[in-house]
Amino acid sequence: MSQRYTREEFYELVWSKPLTHLARDFGLSDVALHKICRKHDIPNPPLGWWAKHAAGHKVRRTPLPKLKSGTSGTVLIAGGELRKEPDEIASAREQARIRASEVEVAADAPAHPIVTRSIAKLRAAKASLVGLVSVSQQGLIAIEIAPASVDRIEQCLNRIVAAARLQGFELSGKGERAAFTDGVVTIPFTLKETVKRSKHVPTEQELAQEEKQRKERDRRWARNRWDSDIGFSFRNPWPEWDHEPTGQVAFEMDVYLRYASQIRRSFKDAKIQRLENMAADIAVGMAVLGAAKREDDRKAEEARVREEEATRLRIEAKRRGYIEERRSRVLGEVFVRLERRDQLRLVVSQLTTELGHDDSARTVEFVRWARNVLERAEQRMSVAGLEILFEAEHVFGDDDDRGFYPSRGGW
Questions:
Q1: E strands of 78-222, at which residues?
Q2: CA 200 centroid distance within chain
Q3: Which of the 8 DSSP states describes residue 263?
Q4: Please, which contacts does 45-48 make with residues 24 or more away whose CB atoms are closer than 8 Å?
Q5: Per DSSP, what are the bridge partners of residue 172?
Q6: Residue 214 in 3-state DSSP?
Q7: What are 4's strand-pairing partners?
Q8: Burial 112-149 (b: 16+ CB within 10 A, else e)
Q9: What number of other Cβ atoms are within 10 A of residue 19's Cβ?
Q10: What is the CA radius of gyration of the chain?
Q11: Contact at 8 Å (CB) between 267 and 65?
């Protein structure tokens, strides 16, 4: 919850205790508190001042300068988080709280055209069965509230727009619905009012009507007029439930985060704190959510790159295995050729040595034929012959992975 001080009140606070202690009370670093003091031209005790003060020495305060033109007379300390946050989120929150301290968003913040158009549609809308009016249209704000809350929410939205601008966010109507954007992160949002549901207690008039219908039904049945009983029902002529808008509205930011799931996205009316007084806190939350989204997207991109690299390595391993399998199959063919050539050499050499008898005509013809077969085998085992084989089988070249189609994901 935001805390507001006049410049004079904050000056007194700064000189009431060491800045490190005061910063801890606010959930800020002393560096951030120094920056807030500088922005509001509030002097703080110099180094050694508190030690001299504790030792009983007479020390004097640096007077509070007059308010300069363009400097706010109000110091706003936006609410922080009690739980431990990652360093990048904590840093983003602190910087957003420093920015939020600069200007107090006025209750009569300038009307934003998107807010004006959304509220106009809301005022023209017909209330639903639960008593809410809603608008959900491209370029407008998604709102679902009771008619009695419309004026308050219009003021609230304009204050949030002004506070968000201090954090670098502008309200845009370019998407399906209005959203805040800083040019990188887009934060869609909705405003919804809660509705209390209670069991309906029938009024005397409703009970009388039900009794009248019962008697009329009994009369028709007594006359055996079953066919004309179409208009009667055994259901009670009153609703089962009553719905009453509570006046409590929630501002919900619709941003999905894969990693930083604990970031606050919802700001709601409470007994003490109302939504229109939470503009600075909402804007700080928006800045933190924007930082978290950027960090989330960065991590997601890193994860995507890692997964792509892992997939690439899996595919490459499968491709190499596929190539190795095809090369091994061709190597088997080379061994077959080599064995056939060597066997032919042996046979031709042996028979050529033994030939010379007149009764060896058939063997002579075989040797002649075998020499021709050997010549072809020699050619097939030559560099040129193997090149023809490798080219035909598409191995040992740029087309080594011909026919390789990895499954999706590289598995």
A1: 133-135, 142-145, 170-172, 179-181, 186-199
A2: 42
A3: S
A4: 45/14, 45/15, 45/18, 45/19
A5: 179
A6: helix
A7: 76
A8: bebbebbbebbeebeeeebbbbbbeeeebbbbbbbeeb
A9: 19
A10: 43
A11: no
Rounded-to-5 percentages of helix, strand, coil across the chain:
50, 10, 35
Residue with tokens 């012959």: 385
Quick one: tokens of 307?
A: 């997964």
Beta-carbon contacts of residue 252 (< 8 Å; ≥ 6 apart): 189, 190, 191, 192, 265, 266
Q: CA-CA distance, 92 to 94, in Å (whole number)?
A: 6
Q: CA separation (Å) from 295 to 29, 97, 262, 305?
A: 22, 19, 14, 15
pLDDT in tens, the chain (411 residues): 678 888 888 888 888 888 888 888 888 887 888 888 888 888 888 888 887 778 788 888 888 888 887 677 788 777 776 667 788 888 888 888 888 887 666 667 889 999 999 999 999 999 998 999 999 889 999 999 999 999 999 999 999 999 999 999 999 998 888 999 999 999 999 999 999 988 888 877 877 777 787 777 777 777 765 555 455 555 667 778 888 999 999 999 999 998 877 888 999 998 888 888 889 899 999 999 999 999 899 999 999 999 999 999 999 999 999 999 999 999 999 999 999 999 999 999 999 988 876 678 889 999 999 999 999 999 999 999 999 999 999 999 999 999 999 876 655
Name 239's Cβ contacts closer than 8 Å, sequence gap at least 6.
200
